[in-house]
Sequence to fold (513 residues):
Amino acid sequence: MHATLPQLIGALSQPSRYPHPVQAVELVQTHISWVLLAGEFAYKIKKPVTLRFLDFGTLEQRRKYCEEELRLNRRFAPDLYLEVVAIAGTPAEPLLGGAGDAIEYAVKMRRFSEAGRLDRVCERGELRTEHLTDLAQGLVAFHEAAAAAPDKSIFGRPDVVLAPMIENLSISSDLLRGADCQDRLDALHAWTKGQWERLTPSLQQRKTAGHVRECHGDLHLGNLVLIEGRVRMFDCIEFNPDYRWIDVASDIAFTYMDLVQHQQPGLANWFVDQVLSASGDYEAVQLLRFYAVYRALVRSKVAAIRAAQEAGAPGMDAADAMHYIGLAERLVAPKALRLVITHGLAGCGKTTASSQLLLDDAGANTLRLRSDVERKRLYGLTALQRSGSSLDGGIYVADAHERTYGRLLDLALMLLLAGWSVVVDAAFLRREERARFAALAQRCGATFAICAPQVSVAQLRERIRARHAAGSDASEATLEVLERQLDWIEPLDAQENACRLVQAGSAERQLGL
Fold:
């Protein structure tokens, strides 16, 4: 194995080279680094490579970027990223942390089980909605705390956003000349440029609004790990600030894209739903597909580089690069739009049913709006924060009801115009409210449907009691609210019943409820 490796890496593959107990050393390679898994620690050494988008060509550059990697990743994983270690001695006789001039540097990390990486968890069929909810909440908190790009910086400027996208396509085109895909790459180039021109005002507005931040930059499933039941981020982009100082929508899009790539479109919907529900940043949806295609093409480029580096090795070709080009093409393909509203009394199962609609969409093209969450957001409350409102007071006065449904209508319009199907989870007790959304669907060329779960009044009362006691849902509906709704509800008429949606499968089973 060591015959094809640099002498230093071959030497560090020996357990005796480490100042702590090591029984065996496992080597993991990427196109820009070697990672040595040794005992309870991992040591990441940067390859002396210079590419269009990074420069590890000198020892000083590699030291600099080791220190950047430590700084950046300690923002969200200080317990995993420990220190930068100088390697002294000679390539044949290296000394980790030894005295004398450094011949190389390594980032020392606390090792975790590779089986916990989300790509491995997903491949075993064990990735769950609760994992992605945890990730979404952690990601939103990280983004909110991350530094925002100064107004006068180049980061997030529309031309700076476009540059790496075109560079990706150029690199892939150069490396894949023999793969018979130039027409496909040209079409993706044209789509990217066209979308960029259309979205330039949004890119500028989001930069001004502070959505361009020092993000992770490489948030695919392989850089997420499940540790003690919690999803943790690691291995962010350190080697190029242009890839890190990005719109938060670009970070979200990478995870979304990778879930689609792992054939988990329902979980991709779920992840985005949880991020947007927590952040309220629904304007990001206008850029989500644009960035998801870019992220697929990033992976295509990386695969093409890796294939070129290992040319001639058994089984190595451009198949992975071509796979991601195909994924980008699927993301670009137009989707049929649907607008679904729920209808029913408190406790009837509207949220469970709307969750199932997210998970059932094989096109990874459905997002959700919840009245309980958006009502609270209008009044500066988080989803689980109690408002302390009376039945007809606080955030439940008549004006609040109108404001809430007005916001849902505005957001649904924005999402539909961005090319996403929408599920609106609200009571929709009155026929006039339902009619407004039916008209919106017609205006946007979307199919309209009504999801109306049915249970007995006794079951409604029991569910409301249980939910109120648990305090783990955005709804504040009480038994008093239910009694009021029983007086108010206007049942679906014949025309509405013709639009009624019949769901297949068990939401409770899918969601682990």
